[in-house]
Amino acid sequence: MIRAAVGWVIVVFGVVIFIIPALGWPGVIIVAGGGILVLRNSRWSRRRFVEMAKRYPSTFGRARQWIAGKVARFGKEESQ
Question: Fewest Cβ atoms closer than 10 Å to its Cβ: which of 52, 61, 68, 71?
C-alpha cells in the first residue's frame, strides 16, 4: 500500500515536471516509472489497466505485453 502511494506521488511529480516548459521530456519518464510502481503494487490499478487493455487493445495491449516482458526491444516479439 505504501509503495502504491509512493508511486502515485511520483506520477504527480512527473506530471508537474512535464508541465514545466523547460523540463518536459523527463516528466514522461518519471510518470512511466511511477505508473509501473503503482501497477505492481495496487490491485485496483491493475484491474483498471487490464480493463482498459481489453477495451483499447491497440493502445494498452502493447504496453501490457511490454510490461509482462513478452515483447523484446525494438518491437520484435521474443520466440518462446
Answer: 68
